[in-house]
Amino acid sequence: MSIAPVKVPRELLAVQQTVLEEYVRNRLLQFIRGFGTRVLQLAPDLHPTLLDRAVRDVLEVLPQPDYGLVPVDMLELQLVFRHDCLALGCNEPQCVLCQHNSQRRCAVNFCKKYLVNDRMVARCGAGIRVEVVDRANGKVFDGELPDVFLELFILDGAQYDQRFLGETGRALLAAGGEGADAELEACTLLHNNKGAPLITSLTGCRADEQGRLLLQTQVCSSRGLRFCLVWLWSNRSCSSYKKFLKC
Protein backbone atom coordinates (compact mmCIF):
# COMPACT_ATOMS: atom_id res chain seq x y z
CA MET A 1 0.00 0.00 0.00
CA SER A 2 1.43 3.35 -1.05
CA ILE A 3 0.02 6.62 0.32
CA ALA A 4 1.29 9.99 -0.83
CA PRO A 5 2.06 12.54 1.92
CA VAL A 6 -0.27 15.50 2.34
CA LYS A 7 1.32 18.91 1.92
CA VAL A 8 0.82 21.20 4.90
CA PRO A 9 -0.81 24.52 3.88
CA ARG A 10 1.45 27.54 4.11
CA GLU A 11 -0.97 29.14 6.58
CA LEU A 12 -0.24 26.34 9.09
CA LEU A 13 3.55 26.44 8.86
CA ALA A 14 3.67 29.02 11.64
CA VAL A 15 2.10 26.50 14.05
CA GLN A 16 4.54 24.35 16.04
CA GLN A 17 4.77 20.95 14.38
CA THR A 18 4.28 19.01 17.62
CA VAL A 19 1.13 20.99 18.44
CA LEU A 20 -0.25 20.57 14.93
CA GLU A 21 0.57 16.85 14.84
CA GLU A 22 -1.11 16.28 18.21
CA TYR A 23 -4.28 18.04 17.04
CA VAL A 24 -4.41 16.05 13.79
CA ARG A 25 -3.76 12.81 15.68
CA ASN A 26 -6.65 13.47 18.09
CA ARG A 27 -9.02 14.33 15.24
CA LEU A 28 -7.95 11.21 13.37
CA LEU A 29 -8.59 8.98 16.39
CA GLN A 30 -11.97 10.65 16.89
CA PHE A 31 -12.89 9.85 13.27
CA ILE A 32 -11.65 6.24 13.56
CA ARG A 33 -13.79 5.57 16.65
CA GLY A 34 -16.90 7.10 15.09
CA PHE A 35 -16.28 5.41 11.73
CA GLY A 36 -15.74 2.01 13.33
CA THR A 37 -18.93 2.27 15.39
CA ARG A 38 -20.98 3.24 12.35
CA VAL A 39 -19.53 0.47 10.13
CA LEU A 40 -20.40 -2.16 12.74
CA GLN A 41 -23.95 -0.77 12.92
CA LEU A 42 -24.35 -1.05 9.15
CA ALA A 43 -22.59 -4.41 8.95
CA PRO A 44 -23.15 -6.23 12.28
CA ASP A 45 -21.73 -9.46 10.85
CA LEU A 46 -18.33 -7.81 10.34
CA HIS A 47 -15.86 -8.97 12.98
CA PRO A 48 -14.45 -6.02 15.02
CA THR A 49 -10.91 -7.47 14.92
CA LEU A 50 -10.95 -7.23 11.11
CA LEU A 51 -11.79 -3.55 11.34
CA ASP A 52 -9.07 -3.00 13.95
CA ARG A 53 -6.52 -4.73 11.74
CA ALA A 54 -7.43 -2.59 8.75
CA VAL A 55 -7.03 0.59 10.82
CA ARG A 56 -3.64 -0.52 12.18
CA ASP A 57 -2.37 -1.46 8.72
CA VAL A 58 -3.26 1.98 7.35
CA LEU A 59 -1.77 3.85 10.32
CA GLU A 60 1.51 1.95 9.99
CA VAL A 61 2.05 3.10 6.40
CA LEU A 62 0.68 6.60 6.87
CA PRO A 63 3.51 8.93 5.72
CA GLN A 64 4.76 12.00 7.53
CA PRO A 65 3.16 15.25 6.33
CA ASP A 66 5.02 17.29 3.74
CA TYR A 67 6.05 20.58 5.33
CA GLY A 68 8.08 21.66 2.32
CA LEU A 69 10.80 24.21 3.02
CA VAL A 70 10.05 25.46 6.52
CA PRO A 71 11.92 28.59 7.67
CA VAL A 72 14.59 27.80 10.25
CA ASP A 73 12.98 29.99 12.91
CA MET A 74 9.79 27.90 12.68
CA LEU A 75 11.49 24.56 13.21
CA GLU A 76 11.38 22.80 16.58
CA LEU A 77 14.96 21.63 16.84
CA GLN A 78 16.65 20.11 19.87
CA LEU A 79 20.32 19.58 20.68
CA VAL A 80 21.19 16.08 21.90
CA PHE A 81 24.53 14.76 23.24
CA ARG A 82 25.52 11.38 21.78
CA HIS A 83 28.52 9.13 21.34
CA ASP A 84 29.21 5.71 19.86
CA CYS A 85 30.25 3.73 22.92
CA LEU A 86 33.46 1.75 22.45
CA ALA A 87 32.92 -0.52 25.46
CA LEU A 88 31.73 -4.08 24.99
CA GLY A 89 28.85 -5.57 26.91
CA CYS A 90 25.52 -4.16 28.02
CA ASN A 91 23.97 -1.88 30.63
CA GLU A 92 21.91 -4.58 32.35
CA PRO A 93 23.02 -4.66 36.03
CA GLN A 94 22.03 -8.33 36.44
CA CYS A 95 23.82 -9.58 33.33
CA VAL A 96 25.98 -12.60 34.34
CA LEU A 97 28.33 -12.19 31.38
CA CYS A 98 29.01 -8.49 32.09
CA GLN A 99 29.04 -8.36 35.90
CA HIS A 100 32.84 -8.74 36.06
CA ASN A 101 33.53 -6.60 33.00
CA SER A 102 35.36 -3.41 33.97
CA GLN A 103 34.51 -1.86 30.61
CA ARG A 104 30.74 -1.59 30.93
CA ARG A 105 28.89 0.47 28.36
CA CYS A 106 28.48 4.14 29.21
CA ALA A 107 25.24 5.16 30.87
CA VAL A 108 25.90 8.86 30.16
CA ASN A 109 27.91 10.77 27.58
CA PHE A 110 30.33 12.73 29.75
CA CYS A 111 32.74 11.54 32.43
CA LYS A 112 32.02 12.45 36.04
CA LYS A 113 35.30 14.34 36.26
CA TYR A 114 37.85 15.96 33.95
CA LEU A 115 41.36 16.96 35.02
CA VAL A 116 43.55 19.71 33.58
CA ASN A 117 44.42 19.03 29.92
CA ASP A 118 41.96 16.13 29.71
CA ARG A 119 40.26 15.63 26.41
CA MET A 120 36.48 15.92 26.84
CA VAL A 121 35.46 12.48 25.65
CA ALA A 122 33.16 9.79 27.03
CA ARG A 123 34.36 7.36 29.73
CA CYS A 124 34.99 4.72 27.05
CA GLY A 125 37.20 7.13 25.10
CA ALA A 126 34.74 7.77 22.29
CA GLY A 127 34.32 11.28 20.97
CA ILE A 128 31.16 13.14 21.92
CA ARG A 129 29.00 14.89 19.37
CA VAL A 130 25.90 17.06 19.45
CA GLU A 131 23.17 16.18 16.99
CA VAL A 132 20.36 18.46 15.89
CA VAL A 133 17.08 16.56 16.31
CA ASP A 134 13.69 17.50 14.88
CA ARG A 135 11.30 17.26 17.83
CA ALA A 136 8.37 16.71 15.48
CA ASN A 137 9.59 13.24 14.46
CA GLY A 138 12.53 12.51 16.77
CA LYS A 139 14.93 12.09 13.83
CA VAL A 140 18.25 13.79 13.25
CA PHE A 141 17.69 16.94 11.23
CA ASP A 142 19.35 16.60 7.81
CA GLY A 143 18.51 20.03 6.42
CA GLU A 144 20.71 23.10 6.23
CA LEU A 145 21.20 25.72 8.92
CA PRO A 146 23.19 28.45 7.18
CA ASP A 147 25.37 30.68 9.35
CA VAL A 148 24.37 28.81 12.51
CA PHE A 149 27.02 28.17 15.17
CA LEU A 150 26.88 26.26 18.42
CA GLU A 151 27.80 28.32 21.47
CA LEU A 152 29.60 26.13 23.98
CA PHE A 153 30.46 27.01 27.57
CA ILE A 154 30.49 25.53 31.07
CA LEU A 155 27.95 26.10 33.83
CA ASP A 156 28.52 25.67 37.55
CA GLY A 157 26.41 22.57 38.34
CA ALA A 158 25.50 23.61 41.87
CA GLN A 159 24.43 27.09 40.77
CA TYR A 160 22.44 25.67 37.86
CA ASP A 161 20.56 23.20 40.07
CA GLN A 162 19.79 25.92 42.59
CA ARG A 163 18.28 28.19 39.95
CA PHE A 164 16.59 25.75 37.58
CA LEU A 165 15.70 22.48 39.34
CA GLY A 166 12.47 23.86 40.81
CA GLU A 167 9.22 24.19 38.91
CA THR A 168 9.62 27.97 38.60
CA GLY A 169 13.18 27.63 37.32
CA ARG A 170 12.22 25.00 34.73
CA ALA A 171 9.39 27.19 33.48
CA LEU A 172 11.75 30.16 33.20
CA LEU A 173 14.30 28.12 31.26
CA ALA A 174 11.65 26.71 28.93
CA ALA A 175 10.25 30.17 28.20
CA GLY A 176 13.68 31.58 27.36
CA GLY A 177 14.12 35.29 26.88
CA GLU A 178 16.26 37.82 28.72
CA GLY A 179 15.30 36.52 32.18
CA ALA A 180 16.53 33.00 31.45
CA ASP A 181 19.66 34.34 29.74
CA ALA A 182 20.49 36.43 32.81
CA GLU A 183 20.09 33.44 35.14
CA LEU A 184 22.29 31.28 32.89
CA GLU A 185 24.87 34.05 32.70
CA ALA A 186 25.12 34.02 36.50
CA CYS A 187 26.06 30.30 36.35
CA THR A 188 28.62 30.66 33.58
CA LEU A 189 32.24 29.60 34.11
CA LEU A 190 34.48 30.85 31.31
CA HIS A 191 38.01 31.04 32.76
CA ASN A 192 40.22 29.10 35.14
CA ASN A 193 42.15 30.56 38.06
CA LYS A 194 44.91 31.77 35.74
CA GLY A 195 42.51 33.66 33.51
CA ALA A 196 42.78 31.18 30.62
CA PRO A 197 39.65 29.87 28.87
CA LEU A 198 38.11 26.96 30.75
CA ILE A 199 37.79 24.89 27.56
CA THR A 200 39.81 25.18 24.38
CA SER A 201 39.77 23.52 20.97
CA LEU A 202 42.61 22.19 18.83
CA THR A 203 40.62 22.45 15.60
CA GLY A 204 40.75 26.22 15.29
CA CYS A 205 37.24 26.91 16.55
CA ARG A 206 36.88 30.60 17.14
CA ALA A 207 35.74 32.03 20.45
CA ASP A 208 33.79 35.19 21.24
CA GLU A 209 35.10 38.03 23.40
CA GLN A 210 33.92 36.34 26.63
CA GLY A 211 35.60 33.02 25.81
CA ARG A 212 32.65 30.94 24.62
CA LEU A 213 33.57 28.50 21.87
CA LEU A 214 31.68 28.78 18.60
CA LEU A 215 31.43 25.49 16.72
CA GLN A 216 30.41 25.18 13.09
CA THR A 217 27.92 22.53 12.01
CA GLN A 218 29.03 19.48 10.06
CA VAL A 219 26.63 17.76 7.69
CA CYS A 220 27.00 13.99 7.34
CA SER A 221 24.84 12.33 4.69
CA SER A 222 24.21 9.28 6.86
CA ARG A 223 23.87 10.99 10.25
CA GLY A 224 22.40 14.41 9.56
CA LEU A 225 23.46 17.67 11.17
CA ARG A 226 25.90 17.49 14.06
CA PHE A 227 28.66 19.24 16.00
CA CYS A 228 31.76 17.27 16.94
CA LEU A 229 33.35 17.84 20.36
CA VAL A 230 36.28 15.46 19.84
CA TRP A 231 38.99 18.10 20.08
CA LEU A 232 37.82 19.97 23.18
CA TRP A 233 40.22 20.12 26.10
CA SER A 234 39.66 21.08 29.73
CA ASN A 235 41.97 23.72 31.25
CA ARG A 236 40.76 23.14 34.81
CA SER A 237 39.84 20.12 36.90
CA CYS A 238 36.10 19.85 37.19
CA SER A 239 33.60 17.43 38.68
CA SER A 240 30.46 19.49 39.30
CA TYR A 241 30.14 21.34 36.03
CA LYS A 242 27.44 21.11 33.43
CA LYS A 243 28.11 21.48 29.73
CA PHE A 244 25.62 23.90 28.25
CA LEU A 245 24.92 24.26 24.56
CA LYS A 246 23.09 27.07 22.89
CA CYS A 247 22.17 27.30 19.24
Number of strands: 12
Largest sheet: 5 strands, antiparallel
What is the N-to-C succession of helices and strands? HHEEEEHHHEEEEEEEE
Amino-to-carboxy terminus distance: 40 Å
Secondary-structure-based class equals alpha+beta
The shape, in one word, is extended
Kindly estimate the percentage of residues that lie in beta strands according to DSSP. 15-25%
Q: Which percent bin holds the helix content?
A: 25-40%
Low-confidence stretches: 220-225
Radius of gyration: 24 Å
Which whole number gives the mean pLDDT? 77
**Count of discrete alpha- or pi-helical segments spanning 4 or more residues:** 5
Concise account of the structure shown:
This protein has 247 residues and is of the alpha+beta class.
Q: What labels would you give this structure?
A:
247 residues, alpha+beta, 5-stranded antiparallel beta sheet, 20% strand, extended
What does this protein structure show overall?
The structure is a single chain. The longest helix has 26 residues, at 17-42. The protein has helices at 17-42, 48-61, 157-164, 167-175, 177-187, and strands at residues 77-82, 129-134, 139-140, 149-156, 188-189, 199-201, 206-207, 213-216, 218-220, 224-228, 232-234, 241-246. The strands form three sheets. Strands 1, 2, 3, 9 and 10 form a five-stranded antiparallel beta sheet that branches. It starts with 16 loop residues before the first helix and ends with a strand. The chain is 28% helix and 20% strand.
